[in-house]
Design brief:
single chain, about 300 residues, alpha/beta, Rossmann fold, 10 helices, globular
């Protein structure tokens, strides 16, 4: 495995790369403990689809102030990790197990050797991958907070079975690498705060787009048929009783009441099946709970604080 480092004094993160296998470079950010004190624990900060480390600088500072060292990866195909296709705007993956494999490699290489308690704070797709990871790495995580986790994708009820079947068939053809209907390359012109379904805070909404303006290589567009099939197959894996039974980590699942990206119903159903999971729904919140208006983010962090220090 390769390990290179770049560093900027203006950044909360030091940026590193490692190679789980040939021709695959995964970027991750790692913070120093606040006030140069030794960190008492590590927080694995896992973001969602189309996101990247830079978007989460504010979240990382918040965790750093709580005494955590923060480690946060760019998923393969996102951020400045290796992209899967020649058109780097296409969100593509062959199977979600690849994400889990990369997270395991990061954990074993970077986090476990420190010998510190490890917590997870994960958003959306990151929450899904975290659950899959915890079903493999038993008892490795002390506690996990999953905000708006992608337990299932919100699709029109009538179209869901059609898209599921179509994506399965197309994933076995060259169309696996083609955009799904309605997906396209990233364009800042399409990023309109008014009428968005991600968050209510205009300043936080623009963080991602400001970072992309500084480094266009961070941009990611829509998803391919291959990605959609991989996601729906992984959704089915998380429904399996043997997988659910292996997840014993104490979990706080925080749901956004007005989430139109992932299914809050599926979140609540899974939380009831997990052996050690609490469920909280935030009234009036959109999908991006960590980037919502102040009244909502205060509720999220209050719940995080109560859960982590219990």
């Amino acid at each position: 495995m390769m390990d290179n480092k770049t560093h900027s004094n203006k950044e909360i993160f030091e940026y590193h790369y490692f190679s789980p296998r040939k021709n695959l470079n995964i970027r991750y950010g790692r913070t120093a403990p606040c006030l140069k004190e030794s960190a008492s624990a590590v927080c694995l900060l896992l973001h969602g689809r189309s996101e990247f480390i830079e978007k989460y600088k504010g979240v990382a500072r918040h965790l750093q102030e709580k005494g955590f060292q923060v480690v946060s990866p760019d998923w393969r195909g996102q951020g400045l990790s290796s992209r899967e296709l020649e058109n780097r705007h296409k969100g593509h993956i062959n199977r979600f197990d690849d994400y889990v494999d990369d997270l395991e490699a990061l954990y074993l290489r970077v986090i476990e050797p420190q010998g510190l308690p490890v917590y997870i704070l994960a958003h959306s797709m990151g929450g899904h991958i975290a659950l899959r990871f915890m079903s493999r790495q038993l008892s490795k995580i002390k506690k996990a907070v999953l905000v708006s986790p992608m337990i299932d994708i919100t699709l029109p009820v009538m179209l869901y079975p059609v898209l599921k079947l179509l994506s399965k068939k197309l994933s076995k053809t060259p169309f696996a690498r083609k955009y799904t209907i309605g997906s396209r390359d990233y364009s800042v012109k399409a990023a309109k705060f008014k009428g968005n379904n991600l968050c209510h805070d205009p300043k936080k909404y623009r963080i991602l787009h400001h970072e992309i303006a500084k480094n266009p290589d961070l941009a990611l567009g829509g998803v391919t048929w291959g990605w959609l099939n991989a996601a729906l197959e992984s959704v089915e894996i998380l429904k399996q009783d043997d997988i659910i039974g292996r997840i014993t980590t104490p979990i706080l699942m925080i749901s956004a009441q007005k989430d139109s990206i992932v299914s809050s119903k599926a979140q609540e159903q899974l939380s009831g099946k997990l052996s050690n999971c609490s469920f909280l729904s935030i009234k009036g919140a959109f999908h991006e709970l960590l980037f919502e208006e102040t009244g909502i983010t205060h509720q999220v962090w209050d719940a995080f604080n109560r859960f982590v220090v219990e």
